[in-house]
Amino acid sequence: MLAQLTLDRDDDSPAATSYFAQIPSIASFEFSRGAPFLLTAATRVLVDSNYANTGSPSLLDFATIFRQDLLEVTGFDYLPQVSLASDGGLSGIIYLTLGASDYSLYNGQATDEGYEFDVSHQTITIKGSGARGAWWGTRTLLQQAIVSDKMSGFMTVPSGSGWDAPGWEVRGFMLDAGRHWFETSFLTDLCTYASFFKLNEFHIHASDNLWDPNWLYTDLWPELYSGFRFRPANDSANYGVVPQLNESWSQSDFQAMQSSCAAHGITIVPEIDTPGHSLAISQWKPELMLAGNPDQLNLSYPATIPTIQDLWEEFLPWFTSTEISIGADEYPSQYADEYIYFVNDMADYVYARSRKSIRVWGTYEPSNTSSISKNVTIQHWDFPGDTIPVQLLADGYKVINSEQVFLYLDGKTSDGNQFPLSLNESLFWTGAPGEVGWAPNVFSATDESNNTYPGDPGLRGAIFALWEDWGNNATDPLEVYLQLSKSITLFGEKSWAGSGVRSTQLTQEQFDSVYPALNARAPGQNLNRAVKPLGPQGEVFSLNFGGHDFSQGPVGTGVQSVGPPYVLSVTLTPLSGEGTLFRGEDTALLLQNLTFVDVPTNTYFSLPLSLPLGVQSTLEIHATCEYTYLLLQGQGREVYWTTRMDIWGERMQLGNMSFPAPSAWIGEGFEGEIGEVVLRLG
């Protein structure tokens, strides 16, 4: 049963029972006695011609994507094209306009992300304080349609009027793309998904390295895995900074991703991390490294800062954000003055070149002679030394909350004491005893003196972070999405509305009641790799190839990839140990050692067995969100695909892998016979 959310309403209103909780919760809605608005294939999206080109993206740009989302959510074959009008007085109209009241964040700062909505039986009017505010209003409309459809079978929005605005300016998530390679298509889909829950920033940590002391502090350091994801031009003096060119983004690919994220209301904040976490630069120019610390740069060496600035000189024109992150965390404190000079010099340099400001991770740097400029935003993540966020705020700094106790996640490891795979829900809903749960103004679960109030003028908001300390083989993109999917929605509620500030905020029960439906139908992407079964037993396809000759090429199914849970079964008689049984957009399954391949990272996960040649075998591959295993007919045992996990090269342990089904092509380079192939859900 989906939870209803009681807002400002007349309890006698028959329409009141059709309003449901959504994520994030809205600030206010007052019901009227009229019939609800019903979405139909005749529903039209109109844009106020007076404001159509206002904003970047413009109101018209947002409206165009909104119509596409409406098509997907409703399942209609057609909706009228977006058109311009001076008012929305016609029947069956969703009218987008600007000119809403002046809305403020909790700290009193004006925001263009507020919106008002007025719903009657005939018309929905969404009025933004800016174009992005109107966009968030369309997310509210779509969510109401989804949850009402789940409950009643009709896509309706109740009659009434309301308003909403975020509590904080920064509501974002960070992904460590420096230690784990991700294609821009995956990152773009993450933006689209996060946008549905009104997050507005995607912080991409785009350079870093694995930390393994057995490699880093020995002669092996030049071979330790590092990543620098922005690919310089072919004739650039910076060309050598990228360790693996196939694991880097071209300017056109990055900017296409950046544009798509912006079109969904999300700003990409890029990070190149220096002077620490900089092994990629040391491997390129060893003379710049700090003696004995290959992942740290020597800021006193004359060429170091100019080299870093040359990198930014090339890449700053790529970025449309008004801020960038230079990282600047975990640098040796004995070089405090050099570090502070570097941060301030970079702030001046970046602003002079691009009019952008910078962020740094909070790092304790004891100095009696200098301090970091107040123009630099501090992204707090830990409490070492004197980097106490309430003190930073009192001193006049702008602060973003990324406190690791609440907001740090990590990929799978062999140590359960590392950061969790997803946000700790108990801390978000209840917090410490007597608290109402985490919000951007909460930095400590145990010491209230380290927390501030929601309206603190220097508190910009919060970003939660998923780190990939263990590299490409620890997780595949599906597992990364599964870590983020619910965390993004939970964080969306708390970073938009907070805890205990508004009477309309969600309870955990309300949140849990609507999350599955909203996750399953969030438009514009298919990170769940969901498909509709065609058969009565959940079959996606059932094929029998008989005497088909695969030497003529693989057979396409039209189904790219299928997310778990699923069962993929095949009967085959191989004549060679080579070839690819199945291939999809995410994964492939090789015949040799029945090896799963994570296609984006080209990482291999093999089984300790081989199929006999010239003998018929029947395989069943079972997958859930936690594991993937093989059942081989006649053996009666489960064989799991695993990865070797470790903590900094020690405490080795095997962990299970979860893979999407590779379902697009069958029999690529295969020699032999394939009989029946069945892919079913469940």
Automatic annotation (TrEMBL):
It catalyses: Hydrolysis of terminal non-reducing N-acetyl-D-hexosamine residues in N-acetyl-beta-D-hexosaminides. It holds the Pfam family Glyco_hydro_20. The active site is at E330 (proton donor). It is an enzyme of class 3 (hydrolase). InterPro entries: Beta_hexosaminidase_sua/sub (IPR025705), GH (IPR017853), GH20_Enzymes (IPR052764), Glyco_hydro_20_cat (IPR015883), Hex-like_dom2 (IPR029018), HEX_bac_N (IPR015882). One of its GO terms (molecular function) is beta-N-acetylhexosaminidase activity. SUPFAM superfamilies: (Trans)glycosidases, beta-N-acetylhexosaminidase-like domain. One of its GO terms (biological process) is carbohydrate metabolic process. Keywords: Glycosidase, Hydrolase. Residues 170-418 form the Glycoside hydrolase family 20 catalytic domain. Its EC number is 3.2.1.52. Residues 23-143 form the Beta-hexosaminidase bacterial type N-terminal domain. Belongs to the glycosyl hydrolase 20 family. This is beta-N-acetylhexosaminidase. The lineage of its organism: Eukaryota, Fungi, Dikarya, Basidiomycota, Agaricomycotina.
